[in-house]
Design the sequence.
């Protein structure tokens, strides 16, 4: 398999366009104008808003005693793959049994601070190629690799040698981004962070503070907004969640600094404004957030779409946020669930229908782990 490396993007001039089941909503956060985030604009004709009030029920714990789980990828047979940020391993979790089988350790992972083995995703052609993609921090950068997964081999030896498809993403002790996902178009999307160097977010010649879009081989995807660049949108602080709705529209969750965390509707060429703005802004150069929260109520990571709403995992906020949608606007104020019930929540992934997979993140050095942490849960939502 031929290695492809993309170390930088072409320099371009900065353009002007940069507790379970409870339905309580303490901390549903007002916008910068003091009103609850929501939308007055209607969506497309024929698009119906979900109910303003939803519900969440924790069905079961699928697996526990996990160490620093970060990425989660459902397999076609119903099992789950989960990455360990600090150990650099990928483990298969039996959907019904919870049995853990370690596939192997990904070589080259340098885990420090917020870096390590982060997001994972299955190839669009997984049924025939059995490739697993991973976003990882090395000694020099953040990069994306792909590996052959062969379950016929002994446990611990089921991952092939990593093939680097994209590299050169800035690394740091903080803000390494890390979420990867294949979109409905078959392209690979990656959320990156500005690695603590704020200026990178507005620098199109840098891969930091961006959402990237590339082919499965790591080449800039056809139709990207900035020519031969992999950059799809810019002006981000630390993107850690990517999700598409049922109309194939992209949304992303993002860490703020001291004031506003965000979930954004992403369009090609968007500029989120960081570090010039944080949260909603009247500056016409920037595309403001769909919804925003004070940082103690969110610190968002994973993002998923189900039942007409976005579902966003909160780390510092220790809650799961529901953002009802109509089109690319909110149809009702966001609603919080599981407040403080399971500690820090890291990753949320659609499991089909009204089900989600949800992981905790209490062993990441910033939480207070219970005896059985960390865990993966199955939840029902509406």
Sequence:
């Amino acid at each position: 398999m031929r290695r492809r490396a993309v170390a930088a993007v072409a320099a371009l001039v900065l353009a002007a366009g940069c507790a379970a089941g409870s339905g309580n909503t303490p901390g549903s956060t007002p916008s910068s104008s003091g009103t609850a985030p929501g939308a007055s604009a209607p969506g497309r004709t024929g698009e119906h808003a979900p109910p303003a009030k939803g519900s969440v029920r924790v069905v079961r714990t699928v697996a526990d005693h996990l160490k620093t789980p970060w990425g989660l990828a459902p397999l076609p047979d119903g099992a789950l793959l989960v990455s360990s940020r600090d150990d650099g391993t990928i483990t298969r979790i039996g959907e019904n049994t919870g049995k853990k089988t370690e596939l192997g350790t990904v070589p080259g992972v340098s885990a420090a601070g917020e870096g390590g083995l982060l997001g994972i995703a299955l190839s669009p052609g997984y049924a025939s190629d059995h490739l697993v993609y991973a976003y990882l921090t090395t000694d020099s950068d953040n990069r994306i690799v792909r590996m052959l997964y062969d379950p016929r081999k002994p446990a611990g030896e089921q991952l092939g040698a990593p093939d680097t498809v994209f590299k050169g993403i800035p690394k740091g002790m903080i803000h390494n981004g890390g979420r990867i996902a294949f979109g409905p178009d078959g392209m690979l999307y990656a959320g990156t962070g500005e690695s603590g160097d704020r200026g990178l977010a507005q620098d199109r010649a840098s891969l930091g503070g961006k959402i990237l879009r590339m082919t499965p081989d790591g080449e800039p995807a056809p139709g990207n907004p900035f020519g031969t660049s992999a950059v799809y949108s810019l002006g981000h602080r630390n993107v850690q969640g990517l999700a598409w709705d049922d109309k194939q529209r992209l949304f992303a969750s993002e860490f703020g600094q001291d004031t506003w965390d965000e979930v954004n509707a992403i369009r090609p060429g968007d500029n989120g404004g960081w570090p010039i703005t944080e949260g909603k802004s009247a500056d016409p150069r920037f595309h403001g957030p769909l919804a925003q929260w004070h940082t103690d109520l969110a610190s968002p990571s994973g993002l998923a779409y189900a039942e007409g709403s976005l579902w966003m995992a909160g780390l510092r906020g220790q809650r799961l946020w529901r953002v009802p949608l109509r089109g690319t606007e909110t149809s009702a104020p966001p609603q919080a669930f599981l407040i403080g019930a399971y500690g820090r929540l890291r990753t949320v992934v659609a499991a089909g229908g009204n089900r989600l997979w949800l992981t905790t993140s209490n062993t990441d050095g910033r939480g207070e782990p219970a005896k059985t942490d960390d865990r993966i849960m199955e939840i029902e939502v509406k």
